[in-house]
Design a protein that fits this description.
The protein is built from ten helices and eleven strands. It is α+β, with helices and mostly antiparallel strands and 309 residues long. It has two domains: 4-163 and 299-308, Ribosomal Protein S5, domain 2 (2-Layer Sandwich); 169-297, Alpha-Beta Plaits (2-Layer Sandwich). The strands form two sheets. Strands 1, 2, 3, 4, 5, 6 and 11 form a seven-stranded mixed beta sheet that branches. A four-stranded antiparallel beta sheet has the order 8-9-7-10. The structure holds adenosine-5'-diphosphate.
């Protein structure tokens, strides 16, 4: 009987406010569950075990695109059957497509006796992100595969830096409106002012230094985005209120998760993270938009193989 590998692929927060396209972190909650087995014929079969109605055509599902790119590398000698049980809502901004792409790559690699490196898995998985958003980017993929906080210093050539970080709680609210990554990219300005760039790279450097030094105040001060947030936050009802009231409730800071509509806040302790959750719930109850919230921590492991038999 052929082997089946089951993995958990976690949600991720990309950008981390000031680090558009270059920073990301992995969460413990929510996560997708995926099982994969080899097929005799060189094709990809996708079975969806959830209510999201994502495409089963492998060319149209990010996980399928990733597996097809791995098959090509293996001279199309083998195929895969993949079952996806998705819990991270597509278009949420917490790395739904990246979880499928990274999860498929890690799971397939486990079947293939780990012949590919993590860096190669990121390369395969980025093909999925290209399908979802039109651009190859790794700020969800890298933390999903490596775990923790990651810096994608460069895509060409790929240069991923794992950034050590202190214990941090993450509160996420997902207002149930859809913001497509491709749309959220289109509205961005193509040029920025030098004075804004200086502020932004000061914050990126400050945030990375804050993580490495476990300097919570520096982390909080650096969670500022003068380039992307002023444009994108307009797409998210309640954004400004969530941000200001979350900070008043004890959060270090936060902002748009990926391209939104989810908003995340970092906190030093669980009590603050839970107080932030209440603030978020009160705001979306008042506005009248359905939402999900998560109080979770940074996931240092990334995609996890939970069964292999
Ligand atoms: P997120 O930031 O939550 O990943 P994206 O907008 O980047 O959201 O990706 C969601 C888009 O990708 C949707 O249009 C969805 O239909 C498409 N998609 C294709 N396959 C998948 C998959 N396996 N998982 C999630 N989204 C997928």
């Amino acid at each position: 009987m052929s082997k089946t590998v089951t993995i958990h692929a976690p949600g991720t927060v990309a950008n981390l406010v000031c680090g558009f396209d270059v920073l990301g972190l992995a969460l413990h909650q929510p996560y997708d569950i995926m099982s994969i087995k080899l097929k005799d014929e060189p094709t990809v079969t996708i079975i969806n075990k959830d209510e999201f109605n994502l495409p089963t055509d492998p060319e149209k599902n990010v996980a399928g695109v990733v597996l097809l790119s791995m098959m090509e590398k293996l001279n199309n000698e083998t195929g895969f059957e993949l079952t996806i049980e998705k819990h991270i809502k597509p278009g949420s901004g917490i790395g739904s497509s990246a979880a499928s792409a990274a999860g498929a790559a890690v799971a397939a690699n486990e079947l293939l006796d780990k012949q590919f490196s993590k860096e190669e898995l990121v390369q395969f998985a980025m093909n999925g992100e290209k399908l979802a958003s039109g651009v190859k980017h790794a700020d969800n993929i890298a933390p999903c595969i490596y775990g923790g906080v990651t810096l994608i210093r460069s895509i060409h050539p790929l240069d991923i830096v794992q950034v050590p970080a202190p214990e941090l709680y993450v509160t996420v609210v997902h207002p149930q409106i859809e913001v497509r990554t491709s749309d959220a990219r289109q509205i961005l300005k193509k040029q920025i002012l030098l004075k804004d760039a200086i502020k932004q790279w000061g914050n990126v450097a400050g945030l990375v230094a804050g993580f490495i030094k476990s300097d919570y105040d520096l982390i909080g001060r650096s969670l500022e985005d003068v380039i992307i947030e002023p444009v994108r936050s307009i797409l998210i009802p309640g954004f400004d209120e969530v941000k200001s009231k979350s900070k008043a409730a004890g959060a270090l800071g936060g902002g748009i998760s990926g391209s939104g509509p989810s908003i995340f806040m970092l906190s030093k302790d669980e009590a603050s993270a839970k107080a932030v959750e209440i603030v978020m719930q009160e705001i979306y109850n008042k506005i009248g938009i359905d939402y999900n919230t998560y109080v979770t921590k940074i996931n240092g492991e990334g995609v996890r193989v939970v069964d292999s038999k």
